[in-house]
């Protein structure tokens, strides 16, 4: 999977064929996608989008459809053009993310 960005505009996640690296599908997500992570069971992909409104998009990898969008009420962003926002799945379906503040804060969802 790869992140397609267009500045602070809407972005996309691109799925690639692992045998020849050709793109096979894309899924539109929010503005300025900056990081992604596959769930431990391989069923979901979490994508953090750091431009307003900041959110984490959950994509069903079996259907390549957006399953859920989680707004991030606690999200600081010191410069949307050089964001450091990250997302990761943890044990038991917990989602971790760091915001894009000058001194990023680790936050926990779910």
Please provide a brief summary of the model.
The protein is mainly beta and 110 residues long. Helix content is 0%, strand content 51%. The strands form 3 sheets. A 4-stranded antiparallel sheet has the order 4-5-6-7, with no helix packed on it. Strands 1-2-3 form a 3-stranded antiparallel sheet, with no helix packed on it.
Description:
This protein has 110 residues and is mainly beta. Helix content is 0%, strand content 51%. The protein is built from no helices and ten strands. The chain is globular and about 40 Å long. The model has no long low-confidence stretch (mean pLDDT 89).
What is the helix tally? Answer: 0
- The SSE order reads EEEEEEEEEE
CA-based gyration radius: 13 Å
Weakly predicted, low-confidence segments: none
Molecular shape: globular
Q: Helical proportion?
A: under 10%
Notable characteristics:
110 residues; mainly beta; three-stranded antiparallel sheet; 10 strands
Secondary structure: elements and pairs:
Layout: E1 2-4, E2 10-16, E3 23-31, E4 33-38, E5 44-49, E6 55-60, E7 65-71, E8 86-89, E9 95-98, E10 106-109
Antiparallel strand pairs: 1-2, 2-3, 4-5, 5-6, 6-7, 8-9, 9-10
């Amino acid at each position: 999977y790869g992140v397609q960005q267009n500045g602070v505009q809407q972005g996309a996640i691109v799925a690639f064929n692992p045998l020849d690296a050709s793109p096979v599908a894309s899924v539109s997500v929010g503005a300025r996608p900056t990081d992604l992570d596959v769930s431990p069971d391989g069923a979901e992909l979490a994508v953090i989008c750091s431009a307003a409104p900041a959110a984490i998009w959950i994509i069903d990898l079996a259907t390549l459809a957006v399953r859920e969008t989680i707004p991030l009420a606690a999200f600081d962003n010191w410069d949307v053009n050089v964001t450091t926002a990250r997302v990761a799945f943890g044990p038991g379906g917990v989602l971790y993310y760091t915001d894009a503040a000058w001194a990023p804060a680790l936050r926990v969802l779910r």
